[in-house]
Design goal:
The protein is mainly β and 361 residues long. It contains three helices and 23 strands. It is globular and about 50 Å long.
Amino acid sequence: MRSAMLRFLACISLFFFLVPVTYVRGPVPPPNESQYITLEPVRIDAKNPVRTRVGRLEFLGGWKITSANAAFGGISSMVTLPDNRFLMLSDNGSLFGFTLDEDKHLAVRPFIAPLPDGPAKPNEFARQNWDSESFLHDPETGQFWVGYEHQHSIWRYGPSLARKEAAHFPEAAKNWPENGGAEAMLHLPDGRFLIFSEAAEYSKGGYQALIFATDPAEPTSKAVRFGYQPPKGYHLTDAALLDDKSAVLLHRRFTPFGGLSAIVSIAQLQDFQPGKVATSVPIATLKSPLKVDNMEALAVTHDGDQTIVWIASDDNFIALQESLLFKFRLLKGKVSRKKPDPERQNEKAGASPGFSTFESD
């Protein structure tokens, strides 16, 4: 009976991952505009509370995020501001913000509000057309960039996120799959912007990505294509600069019986070149028995000489899933160009499922 129930739940989950819409839910609940956000601490492995190592990531803390606000959920991207301040975008065009008090497990000064403008008016199927999937912030100018799916476009907002400054529907993204648009963005140290498609196949391998020499939200900006090849069976969901030479990338996979898993990898910025196909080196795998969900959002901060990697999940507005926020320390190690297979590393080292072992300095 238990195995039959698990197969049933797996099939239901598969439906939500394969149906070509981003926002799927049951009857709409009564409007709730609560501005409260609640944090509940969680462990990376409930069966082994002392375990913290996940490949080259050391688990420092985790929280389940909830709110009674009907618009809360669907976290697809996030940016970090000073003093542990987080801004998260939902795939229904909503913006969440709070300051994380790690000691008290509190979301301080929270808010939940719609973005001020987007690809369609709020009463024109906003939950689909305002599918905000990628998010950037420039600390020098205070400006924000948002990448949208369905109506593939890049929008720039002012420092307070109160108004739109520019919007661009790139011709190069015109034929991207409806639900496979601007899943990740990077703003490189040399000023270029990279926009990654989740599902538009590239003729030379992998999936399409775009290089903009100038602001991608400006209608006059032009793009050139390149490709990105994610780990086998995975799709890119977010990316963040690690330093001036590399980036950390987040990928997810779902299979009906294997469930959800995620791979964190590192790519070299020099490999993102027009007409080329870039790859990355996996450094950690999140899979059962670890606590893992639809991992879609990624951010990097620095604490002294420590690099902190934050990962958040998209619950797809489904009761069976959760909105999670994880904090990891990036451990030092050698990044091999051979792209090791995290699962094979587990087998060789005799590690428990869900954990990768890599050579450390």
